[in-house]
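Teaching assistant's notes for section 4

Start the section by putting this record on the projector. Ask students to predict, before seeing the second block, whether Bifunctional oligoribonuclease/PAP phosphatase NrnA will look compact or extended. Collect guesses on the board.
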Amino acid sequence: MEQFVAVDGALSAAATAVESRPLLVAIALVAAAGLAVAAYRWLRTTPGERFTELVADREAAVVLMHPNPDPDAMAAAMGVAALGKQVDTEMTIQYPGQIRHQENRAFRTVLELDIEAVDHVTELAAEDVILVDHNEPRGFDGCDGILPTAVVDHHPGDGSGEQFTDVRTDYGACASIIAEYFRDIGAVPVPADEHASETNATRVVPSFTATGLLYGILADTQHLTVGASAADFDAAAYLQPGVDEDKLDRIANPEVDAEVLEIKARAIAGRQTQGSFAVSDVGTVTNADAIPQAADELIRLEGITAVVVIGEREGTIHLSGRSRDDRVHMGRALEAATADAETASAGGHARMGGGQIAPRTEVTDGGETDREPAMSRDALVEEIFACLSGDV
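Reveal the predicted structure now:
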């Protein structure tokens, strides 16, 4: 009975409020209806449409890649830049570090990618920054102070964009997400032997862009065989009509540096094995990009299900791991193996991981900088085997 009285009292109070303040009630109802309509429209808007609107609202923006960008990062960046060009936004692609791997250099050259290196935050070409293929800025002075406008990525992490965040860790490549954006806005891939005007489409995927995006997908999923989701296959199929097969072949089969072949041989000959796990220390290298290539070779050996290759360049230890063993999450294994080194940075996916251990630096009484290893390579090998075996 008391509940009925309370409800009746509440209804009476509401009726009194409506009678005494009809204008305020009407305004509240209109506002609520407006919010409902906005929410409905937002839910029906695809991520690609929302991202395109965000880019179109800017006069200029920077598409920022991670340090030493790979084909997936470069593909995603060129895709965002191509999209921005179609909505009259001035786009600049920038990156920290270097582009050393022969495949990466071929990607840049063959697809005529216009990109700029950056060493300091003051060198960024615009205030609005869009991160692709990573979700936290890193690799150059002042990067910690950047608040990205948007983040598009497929790696796990805590980074986010101020106005747009799209992180899909179930996707094998960031290029697949960008391809999906083009599909969301009805863009038509332009065949290599046609001009964009021949498609009669408002939005297009230029052949250079389609070729780059497909190669980015293939590179990050080992030709759609490792870590690829249904979305990656769908993206590849969508892009195919615009792919230039000649350019794709030139990127995939560049000339190989002699040191890369030598390091692959050293990795195979010097490998240590425990069961189906292999770890190889290739020693000092001048080309750190040869280390992941050596890991790609080792994982193909019969009887090997997980492998890590380590090497040292200018005092920094580089690690690259591959796994086709359901017991081994390579990213977590490398993170755990380097946890005791305060200068380490490592991680990755279940099938692929990498990391670096920078040397400790101390200033001596004489003012000289002393660089010491943060972790010995022998101790690192032992830790890696322990972590691969689940002893973490």
